[in-house]
Amino acid sequence: MAGFAGALDLSVAFVAFPAIEDAFPDASTALLSWVLTIYGIVIAALLVPGGRLADLFGRRKVFLIGVVIFGLGALASGAAPDPGVLIATRAFQACGGALMTPAAMALVLREFPADRRAMAIGTWGAVGGVAAACGPPLGALVVDLGGWRWAFWLSVPLALVVFVWGRVVLVESVDPDVHGLTDLFGSFLVMVAVGSLALAIVEGPSWGWTSAGVLGALALSAVSAVVLVRRSTRHPDPVIAPDLFAAPLFRRANVVALLFGAAFFAMFFGLVRFLTEGWGYSTGQAGLLVTPGPAAAALFSYIGGNLADRFGHRAVMVPGALIFAIGGAWLALGIGEEPALWTVWVPAVLLLGVGIGLVFPNFQSAAVHGVPEARFGVAAAAIQTVVRLSGTIGIALAVVLVGSVVAADPVADFDPLWWTLVLLGLLSAAVSLGIDTRSPVSHRVTNRRARLGLVPELASKKPHNRGPLGASSDSLWTQIWPTSSSLRRAMWSRSRRSRTWR
Length: 502
Fold this sequence. Notes:
The chain is mainly alpha-helical. Helices cover 78% and strands 0% of the residues. It has 22 helices and no strands. It has helices at residues 2-23, 29-32, 34-57, 59-78, 83-110, 117-146, 149-153, 155-169, 184-207, 212-234, 242-245, 248-278, 283-290, 292-311, 314-334, 341-367, 376-402, 415-432, 441-451, 456-459, 473-480, 485-501. Helix 12 (248-278) runs antiparallel to helix 16 (341-367).
């Protein structure tokens, strides 16, 4: 429920952004984009410390405090009188999200045995996908009926329900092995590094790319990032765990998270803005027209989870990223001045949604695939941090590419954004080629023989390969393998002969 509320808040904010621009006509798009980006920057920097606070002082307690801050931040955001206050209240709301998210994940993981925690993490991602699917139509409805302020107030009753329900059903827990806070100065460096980079990107067109302000922001970002990396290698409790990133699988999954996450957030920003600025639809209509994409993503996240369990993450993520790139190319090549909903828009948005469903949940589960069970929480927090940072970068890129739409040719102004989606999709596919989570052939054969009772000492063991939604190889096996024992033996004999012939 908490994951649903957080994802819903973000997707609704994207839909409400054109209405926020109309409400503050004197503010630039670059300034108002901080309404979206500040949330990601703050939550990325405080996610790991928030998890440590939950381990120290009680996960239930910290979770409920985070829910209260999140709800109050949403209430204050809806009442903000000007852009500056709105940005500040969004940062305050993000502090609540940074407490709520890791505490909620720790409470969830505690209820699952070690061999089912990857499933729990994947299900968490799937809930976010459902929230993203609900966000556009729901956001469109509330914005049309009550204005942009209700896009933020929508989270208030959800936070109230989560708080009341959490007080009743959640059981307090702490980690007795945890002592002291994580590197708080490292968290500050994360905010400085990412915030300075976002500032340089969004203000580059207006300040000038070679201006002192932009060059200074880039230099500050680079220096902060270098200090952060060096500090993380020496601090006993770093905000970024360098030993996790030393593992090739974890590192590649995070690179995909950075690339594809940036593409996802840039896409969401660009789709709604194009429909309102390029084709002239209202905010409510734009929200409804975006809906097929998140709906397809929610559906294919389940399908992709099962496929990743059977064939490995690479076999799902590479096609998914390529499908996403095709969707971006469909928009770039097909969109014209006149709306073409059924021949261009809907097919392209569906392709983008299918690609998101196949890639987004799977890079999260691939990241924790080879991580020791004791470090599941740290790895999950790390991948979530990267996703939040990628969102900041993606929104900043979108603001640069389509922030200033020219009235004379608003449709062509979006072409750079569509081609950027293509490029990021192709790069994600290339990196995903190195994410191989398949079991070795000998292990797969042993697992098959164990399930047939041919290896009695292993017959009772659970399969170790799991997809992001937790569909284990064993559950899929019962669906595709015949139940007749005689037919199983016949097919097993045939498969052995075929391997002998090869």
